[in-house]
């Protein structure tokens, strides 16, 4: 065996999954020519999908892997987006330089949001509290006018990366593809490590996890911080994409969309987060012209998924192809 | 400065009564099933719309419109619990929360489809008037809302404590297993309590529609305040819900005047976050945190 | 030299109920100490107290001479006290292998940033841990189920996996909470054998709660009997068997 010996997977499924894992880097390469085939609007939708991939990934870490009912995801998204916008507008930073800070702010917000969980608040109480936190942040966007532009919103300057203007949708695609791939790759490494296992252990049985020597507090904080970081980065992508930030974008409807992504995709499944983002981000675009219809369809969709496909699409994929069996998709 | 305090308290009481009703309606279902209905705010909103349709579109007088709206919401609440929540009751809590949230969301969409973002106002079945008593202004709305909620609370209190049905409800609240043993259909009870909660919520929705414009989005506003009141009073406590609502209503007005107007909006959020951090069981509730 | 584990007048109270009442005993390395008593005698509470899951009102718990009664469960675990749980402490969403790897958590050296960077060292540590976990499972003849989800195993197998997991880091002290529940007699015998070998060959100190009296009597070096939270006997099996107080305790509870 070579020096960096990976263990030899025993089952056929695990062997195939390992091979598939190595193919991962092929996917972004294969996607490079996509802008050649899409018109402006379709490209925008594709970019939107790439924005929501890290949202789903980050959210799933907290809600799926850690198993904590944190409804504060939208707050991280908004904080990331506004951080990016504010840094560009007030400090004149180019967009690419605001991405990491947006992630960091998201991570900090995530850590703050983990405090109730650290104090032992769980289940519905945690959900309600984090919901209040999200709404409080939205109120902050509305009220802190000098910084956020208040209810009228904030116009984000044209994004650029290393001097290369990202005005065109196709240019944004490449930048977003890099970021989304990075978030997926890093999160995957995290989840496949002892940290990811610890998250799942905490989700399964907190007491037993602590009995294994896992400092559950620290890991809960880590999970929240990572989720916030990923979603914060998605927020900065969102700012670059839509060019104008306003508080209504970060309300409860947004949260429901994000929930739909992880539920339809599969709780705790990284693959599911990606699939869910792809499937559900394009959908609202179809309902653009029918206010109310989107909400109705989404509501019914989530009800249907919970009743008939509680383990999400990832479970279907796993059943169809043992090679795609993402260990962490089970509830 | 302090001279305005009575006025603030009086207007705070009216809003507080409304919050109390909403919180109470949410607690009823929670007490019965230990599942929180995250879509409750939207049901309150639908209650308001239902009364509007019955009263304005169908021309019914207020009292029947109100009663039918409440009955309608009772049925809706009952069906939601029996058809959508009961089948997944053993599943992960996230699914329960999401199911309720999604149902509410769907209702919101339906309301928006039907009425767009038109702002509707429910016509008052009583004359608008203001009274000036002892240096404090009372509006007719204040009196009607406070009076109605007080009356409703009185009726519920009597129902709960002095009727056979009330005894049964108390018994099931105390011990579901014991109730099942003596032959009470606990599952039906769950549905009925969600129905009752929805009906009470509808009452709240109607009262709300008397004082604020009716839009599909008032559900979220209502939900957050209902939660704040329940948290303050202590989850699962019926008197706690009422007292929590009252305190919230008054606090919003008082803080809003003496400290800053921002408190009119954010008191609910702050209460929820701070109470759960500092004293999770609120005023009268039970243990809400775990120890590892 | 200090005993491996020493309880000194440990008292645990819940509200008005005294679950454990001034219990003291010692366990040496390589010793198998069984904790028996009627239902509600306080055995599980005592376990929880030792492992840090239940707060102790008074008394001391000493592990290798150091006081641990104020420590958090994960700190106590990291010191070398491992336990199994009565109602399935396996992690349902993880495979058997992953469960054992969680048991190895404190020994898997990968740092956060190393993991993110995909560093060689992290891979090597992970690979090493996986090999070790498979090896442990092989010792118990469970390697063939390594990639199955924990919930897919039979009760007996799950029990065994839990023990493997608890042993992963070679802990000096092992607390087993009713390990034989639901096991058929042949498996029980095997379990007893494994426990004896752990104690005698590896000097692991073992405290076990068990209702299967024959198992207890056949493998234990000492038996501690609890009744209503108090220690009623503390002696080798043969003596305990003949002890009046013990008989009363069990007969009294029917």
Structure description:
The complex is a heterotrimer of chains A (331), B (292) and C (254). The N terminus of chain A is likely disordered. Chain A has one domain: ABC transporter involved in vitamin B12 uptake, BtuC (Orthogonal Bundle). Chain A is mainly alpha-helical and 331 residues long. In chain A, helix 8 crosses helix 9, helix 8 runs antiparallel to helix 11 and helix 13 packs across helix 15. Helices cover 71% and strands 2% of the residues of chain A. Chain B is mainly α and 292 residues long. Chain B has a domain of 194 residues. In chain B, 50% of the residues are buried. Chain C is an alpha/beta fold. Chain C folds into two domains: 138 residues, P-loop containing nucleotide triphosphate hydrolases (Rossmann fold, 3-Layer(aba) Sandwich), CATH 3.40.50.300; 78 residues, no CATH class. In chain C, 41% of the residues lie in helices and 23% in strands. In chain C, a hairpin with a 2-residue loop joins strand 4 and strand 5. Chain C is globular. At the A-C interface, helix 8, helix 9 and helix 10 of A face helix 2, helix 3, helix 4 and helix 5 of C.
Summarize the structure.
The complex is a heterotrimer of chains A (331), B (292) and C (254). With 292 residues, chain B is mostly helical.
Helix content of chain A: over 70%
Indicate how many domains the architecture of chain A comprises: 1
Secondary structure: helix percent of chain B: over 70%
Number of strands of chain B: 2
Q: How would you name the oligomeric state of the polypeptide chains in this document?
A: heterotrimer
Shape of chain B: globular
CATH architecture of chain A: Orthogonal Bundle
**What is the overall pLDDT average of chain B?**
88
Low-confidence stretches of chain A: 1-10
Taking all residues together, what is the mean pLDDT of chain A? 85
SS content category of chain A: mainly alpha
Give the number of helices of chain A.
15
Radius of gyration of chain B: 19 Å
From the spread of the alpha carbons, the general shape of chain A counts as globular
Distance between the termini of chain B: 49 Å
Sheet with the most strands of chain B?
2 strands, antiparallel
What is the β-strand count of chain A? Answer: 4
Question: Which CATH top level class of chain A fits?
Answer: Mainly Alpha
């Amino acid at each position: 065996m070579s020096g960096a010996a990976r263990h030899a997977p025993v089952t056929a499924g695990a062997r195939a999954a390992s091979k598939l894992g190595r193919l991962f880097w092929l996917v972004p390469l294969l996607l490079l020519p996509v802008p050649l085939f899409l018109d402006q609007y379709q490209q925008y939708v594709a970019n939107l999908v790439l924005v929501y991939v890290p949202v789903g990934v980050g959210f799933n870490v907290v809600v799926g892997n850690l198993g904590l009912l944190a409804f504060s995801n939208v707050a991280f998204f908004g904080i990331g987006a506004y951080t990016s916008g504010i840094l560009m507008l007030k400090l004149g930073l180019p967009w690419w330089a605001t991405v990491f800070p947006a992630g960091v702010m998201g991570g900090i917000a995530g850590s703050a949001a983990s405090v109730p969980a650290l104090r032992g608040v769980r289940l519905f109480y945690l959900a309600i509290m984090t919901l209040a936190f999200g709404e409080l942040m939205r109120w902050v966007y509305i009220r802190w006018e000098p910084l956020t532009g208040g209810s009228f919103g904030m116009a984000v300057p044209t994004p650029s990366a290393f001097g290369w203007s990202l005005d065109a949708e196709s240019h944004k695609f490449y930048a977003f593809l890099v970021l989304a791939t990075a978030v997926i790759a890093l999160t995957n490494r995290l989840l496949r490590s002892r940290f990811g296992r610890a998250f799942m252990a905490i989700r399964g049985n907190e007491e037993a996890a602590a009995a294994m020597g896992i400092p559950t507090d620290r890991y809960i904080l880590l999970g929240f911080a990572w989720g916030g970081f990923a979603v914060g980065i998605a927020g900065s992508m969102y700012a670059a994409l839509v060019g104008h930030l306003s508080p209504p974008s970060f309300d409860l409807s947004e949260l429901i969309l994000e929930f739909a992504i992880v539920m339809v995709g599969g709780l705790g499944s990284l693959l599911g987060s990606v699939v869910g983002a792809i499937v559900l981000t394009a959908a609202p675009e179809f309902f653009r012209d029918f206010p109310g219809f989107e909400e109705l369809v989404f509501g019914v969709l989530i009800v249907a998924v919970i009743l008939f496909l509680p383990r999400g699409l990832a479970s279907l994929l796993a059943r169809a192809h043992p090679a795609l069996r993402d260990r962490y998709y089970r509830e | 400065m302090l001279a305005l305090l009575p006025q603030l308290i009086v207007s705070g009481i009216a809003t507080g009564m409304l919050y109390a009703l909403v919180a109470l309606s949410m607690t009823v279902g929670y007490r019965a099933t230990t599942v929180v209905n995250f879509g409750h705010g939207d049901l309150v909103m639908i209650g308001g719309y239902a009364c509007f349709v019955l009263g304005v579109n169908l021309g019914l007088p207020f009292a029947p419109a109100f009663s039918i709206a409440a009955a309608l919401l009772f049925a809706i609440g009952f069906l939601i619990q029996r058809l959508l929540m009961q089948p997944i009751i053993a599943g992960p809590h996230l699914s329960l929360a999401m199911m309720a949230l999604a149902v509410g969301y769907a209702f919101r969409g339906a309301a928006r489809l039907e009425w767009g973002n038109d702002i509707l106002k429910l016509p008052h079945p009583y004359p608008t008037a203001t009274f000036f008593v002892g240096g404090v202004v009372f509006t007719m709305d204040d009196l009607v809302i406070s009076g109605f909620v007080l009356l409703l609370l009185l009726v519920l209190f009597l129902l709960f404590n002095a009727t056979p049905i009330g005894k049964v409800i108390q018994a099931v609240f105390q011990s579901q297993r014991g109730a099942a043993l003596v032959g009470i259909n606990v599952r039906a009870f769950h549905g009925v309590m969600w129905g009752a909660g929805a009906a009470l919520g509808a009452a709240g929705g109607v009262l709300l529609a008397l004082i604020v414009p009716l839009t599909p989005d008032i559900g979220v506003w209502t939900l957050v305040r209902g939660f704040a009141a329940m948290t303050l009073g202590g989850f699962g406590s019926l008197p706690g819900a009422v007292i929590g609502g009252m305190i919230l209503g008054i606090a919003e007005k008082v803080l809003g005047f003496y400290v800053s107007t921002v408190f009119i909006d954010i008191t609910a959020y702050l209460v929820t976050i701070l109470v759960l951090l500092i004293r999770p069981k609120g005023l009268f509730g039970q243990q809400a945190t775990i120890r590892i | 030299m200090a005993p491996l584990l020493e309880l000194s007048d440990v008292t645990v109270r819940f509200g008005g109920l005294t679950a454990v009442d001034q219990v003291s005993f010692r366990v040496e390395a390589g010793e198998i100490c069984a904790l028996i008593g009627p239902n509600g005698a306080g055995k599980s509470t005592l376990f929880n107290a030792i492992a840090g899951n239940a707060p102790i009102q008074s008394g001391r718990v000493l592990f290798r001479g150091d006081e641990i009664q104020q420590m958090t469960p994960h700190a106590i675990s990291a010191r070398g006290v491992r336990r199994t749980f009565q109602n399935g402490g396996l992690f349902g969403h993880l495979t058997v292998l992953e469960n054992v790897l969680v048991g190895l958590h404190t020994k898997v050296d990968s740092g956060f940033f190393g993991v993110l960077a995909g560093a060689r060292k992290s891979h090597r540590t992970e690979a090493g841990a996986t090999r070790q976990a498979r090896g442990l499972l092989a010792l118990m003849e469970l390697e063939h189920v390594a990639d199955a989800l924990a919930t897919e195993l039979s009760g007996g197998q799950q029990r065994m996996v839990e023990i493997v997991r608890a042993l992963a880091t070679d802990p000096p002290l092992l607390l087993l909470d009713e390990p034989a529940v639901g096991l058929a007699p042949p498996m029980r015998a095997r379990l007893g054998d494994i426990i004896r070998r752990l104690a005698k060959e590896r000097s692991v100190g073992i405290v076990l709660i068990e209702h299967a009296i024959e198992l207890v009597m056949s493998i234990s070096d000492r038996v501690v009997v609890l009744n209503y939270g108090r220690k009623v006997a503390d002696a080798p099996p043969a003596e305990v068997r003949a002890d009046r107080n013990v008989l009363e305790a069990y007969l009294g509870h029917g």
